[in-house]
């Protein structure tokens, strides 16, 4: 049998009949934070973590950007015990998220946050996961001042209905299952980060000739990009035409936001009519973003490696070459050595442009075609491995989200009644 939860502030849906509901304000003791005086440097010369909203990017806090001293604590800064649950209740960050975290060591925190030390009979991790699982609903309770500052009034927060399994053991079982899911996610995140670092190191060595692959020797040849082929321009595809048909298209903004070194999938699709005035791509083309917001990123490029009918949008400069391996170029022409040259050739301030004639003057060092292909194969194999791990990570996050929806509402029980 299920009973409907009373609607204190928002509806949490039906719950098992043996669960009870208490106001969130009664779950533990709530504390306000503060900022030690900036006029006394001695307050800020310690090793006690002082948490502010910028630190609230993880669910388990093990450190902070800023630190305060024991003197600051002795003269008024509140030091909270390990296990304190922290949440941001004021600031523009509430416009898009509702950060919640558990401090894994004693911390102090600023005035834009609240700290919760749960009472006996409540599992701290269960409370943490419930708050994380309902972050968007909690964010929906925020108000906005005349100055545009977002705020969740404490009196509103304290009245939020909090569902409670009948025993501490069941709370801990739910928290334990979600903690195991978190551990898997964290291990996958660390593995992905490690694989990315390995690939970054391989790129630095292989794309510069610092490390040579077995079987290859000889000097690399310095060439300008203009010597590798011819440059041409993409034709305009407006935003309204982006989904006008079923022919794949690459637009310049997607080079910055969607693609990395080479095109693997497509995000824009144009009609046959639009394609008649667009530039058709050929396998092996290198696509440079001809416009951008900063000189540091101008001219980011991707290799087009598919043998399919596809088109380039406007503000794309295309290098069409049969004298180099396109995958190698996709990796190499985004390295810091080449990016510095592109940055020096960018024109404009608010919007930066780079021309085909400027790109043609960029110099690089190139091995023989066979070595280019071997290097590109190693790096693309690394990409395949990273992509597989990222897919596994996405699946783990999806599974955890489903677990939260089921366990925190009692639809799935981990313990017999």
TrEMBL record:
Stretches that traverse the bilayer: none
Domain of life: Bacteria
Record's keyword terms, sorted: Coiled coil, DNA-binding, Endonuclease, Hydrolase, Nuclease, Restriction system
Domain Type I restriction modification DNA specificity: 16-191, 219-392
Keyword Phosphoprotein applies: no
EC number: 3.1.21.-
DNA-binding among keywords: yes
Recorded coiled-coil stretches: 379-406
GO molecular function: endonuclease activity; hydrolase activity
Similarity comment text for this entry: Belongs to the type-I restriction system S methylase family.
Protein name per its UniProtKB record: Restriction endonuclease subunit S
Provenance organism: Chloracidobacterium validum
Organismal lineage: Bacteria, Pseudomonadati, Acidobacteriota, Terriglobia, Terriglobales
């Amino acid at each position: 049998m299920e009973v409907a939860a009373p609607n204190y502030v928002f509806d949490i849906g039906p719950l098992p009949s043996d669960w009870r509901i208490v106001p969130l304000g009664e779950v533990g003791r709530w504390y306000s934070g503060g900022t030690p005086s900036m006029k006394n440097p001695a307050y800020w010369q310690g090793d006690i973590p002082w948490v502010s909203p910028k630190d609230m990017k993880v669910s388990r806090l093990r450190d902070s950007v800023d630190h305060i001293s024991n003197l600051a604590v002795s003269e008024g800064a509140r030091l909270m015990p390990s296990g304190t649950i922290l949440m941001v209740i004021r600031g523009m960050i509430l416009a898009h998220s509702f950060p919640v975290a558990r401090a894994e060591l004693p911390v102090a925190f600023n005035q834009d946050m609240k700290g919760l030390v749960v009472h006996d009979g409540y599992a701290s991790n269960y409370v943490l996961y419930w708050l994380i699982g309902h972050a968007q609903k909690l964010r929906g309770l925020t108000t906005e001042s005349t100055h545009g500052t977002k705020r969740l009034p404490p009196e509103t927060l304290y009245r939020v209905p909090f569902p409670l399994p009948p025993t501490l053991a069941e709370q801990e079982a739910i928290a334990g299952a979600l903690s195991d899911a978190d551990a898997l996610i964290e291990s996958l995140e660390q593995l992905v980060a490690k694989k990315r670092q390995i690939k970054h190191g391989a790129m630095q060595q292989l794309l510069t000739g610092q490390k040579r692959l077995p079987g290859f020797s000889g000097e690399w040849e310095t060439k300008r990009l203009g010597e590798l082929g011819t440059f041409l321009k993409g034709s305009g595809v407006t935003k309204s035409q982006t989904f006008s048909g079923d022919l794949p298209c690459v637009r310049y903004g997607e080079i910055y936001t969607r693609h990395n070194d080479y095109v693997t999938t497509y995000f824009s699709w144009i009609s046959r009519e639009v394609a008649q005035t667009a530039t058709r791509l050929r396998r092996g083309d290198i696509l440079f973003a001809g416009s951008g917001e900063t000189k540091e990123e101008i001219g980011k490029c991707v290799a087009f490696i598919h043998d399919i009918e596809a088109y380039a949008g406007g503000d794309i400069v295309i290098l069409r070459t049969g004298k180099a391996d396109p995958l190698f170029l996709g990796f190499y022409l985004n390295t810091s050595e080449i990016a510095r040259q592109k940055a020096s050739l960018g024109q404009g301030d608010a919007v930066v442009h780079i021309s085909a004639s400027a790109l043609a003057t960029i110099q690089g060092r190139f091995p023989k075609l066979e070595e280019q292909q071997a290097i590109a194969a190693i790096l693309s194999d690394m990409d395949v491995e990273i992509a597989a791990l990222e897919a596994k990570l996405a699946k783990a996050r999806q599974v955890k989200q489903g677990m939260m929806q089921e366990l925190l509402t009692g639809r799935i029980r981990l313990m017999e009644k």
